[in-house]
Amino acid sequence: MKCFAPFLFSLFLLNSLVHGAIEINGIAATVNGKVVTKNEVNFLAAPIKAQLQARFPRKSSAYYNELTKAREKILEELINREIMLHLFESGNGDIPRSAIDSEIRRQIRDLYNGDENKFRTELAKSGLSQHKYRELTKRKLVVGAMRAQQFSSSAPPTPDEVNAEYAKHKLKLRDITKDSCDYRKIYIPKLDPEDITATPESQLELAEEITKKLKNGANFAELAKEHSTGAFASEGGLWEDVQRIDLSPEFGAIIFDAKTKSVVGPLEDGRGYTIIQTITKRFGPSPPISEVRERIEARVKSQKSSARFERWIEGQRSKAMIKRKI
């Protein structure tokens, strides 16, 4: 086995010289000597990236602009969390294990339609262990704890403020795994077995042309019967009572964010392009205010102290040693 070691190292070195350095887990930033990795940024950006990839099949400048903004925002949040974690732990603060477990369950529900396997797959793709992700989640919870600790003197929220905030965010607090919808769908495959001259580019052009016609008032059902290769094409592409958990997380997010009756697409997946028209959206149940009162009160307090918090965190950042690598 030893005789192969020099050979393997030489092969690795040659590959690096030809193709550039192989980055196992690059550094996104350092904060007081603590490392924030690119893998952490990539994992937190993964749900956003998946939606953008579906929305922008041509990977236009808009795609890269949106992705860059999302990654920059995530990195800034991670830097802030690292600063606050240091201060929090210096004061012997701690986050209960149960709170971390609850937050992870919420993220799996809201970002991955409750699909734990999808969540684990994204963890593996980003090179993050479950232990590391727990640490990331802890940092997120520390932000809330530090805000409460630093600005506990803020005026307590009134019942009217709490009720108004609950009404404003009630829908976002719902159990999205219980969402369902009816929609029409046209599916254009990247390769058409009935047309050997078709290419992914020509099929994308066809999908774009159909989308343009639909947005100009063309009949969705008729175009679905004419062009779609998806299920129910003969019924005008009508899909009824589809559960959100049966959709991919990125498509589910796009469909439920879209206005009813609007045409969305073409959206890209690995095999083709999808055009959607949402007909009806049925939302999962929202928790009663009694179950989320503490969260709502914390949100109101956070808003009241927002300007003070921003000044405070900027002061902490000015004293920290921060080196951004991306």
Account of the protein in words:
Strand 5 (263-268) and strand 6 form a beta hairpin. The strands form two sheets. Strands 4-3-6-5 form a four-stranded antiparallel β-sheet, sandwiched between helices. It has 326 residues and is an alpha+beta fold. Residues 1-24 have low confidence and may be disordered. It has helices at 4-19, 38-55, 61-90, 97-112, 116-126, 130-150, 159-169, 200-215, 220-227, 249-257, 289-304, 306-319; strands at residues 27-31, 34-37, 180-189, 238-243, 263-268, 272-282, 322-324. It folds into two domains: 24-154 and 305-324, Porin chaperone SurA, peptide-binding domain (Triger factor/SurA peptide-binding fold), CATH 1.10.4030.10; 180-282, Chitinase A, domain 3. The protein starts with a helix and ends with a strand.
Describe the global form.
globular
What's the total helix number?
12
The chain-level structural class is alpha+beta
* Share in β-strands: 5-15%
Sequence of strands across the biggest β-sheet: 4-3-6-5
Please give the number of β-strands: 7
The CA-CA distance between the termini, in Å, is 39 Å
Fraction of residues in H or I helices? 55-70%
Radius of gyration from the alpha-carbon trace, in angstroms = 24 Å
Oligomeric nature of the chains: single chain
Overall CATH architecture of the largest domain: Orthogonal Bundle
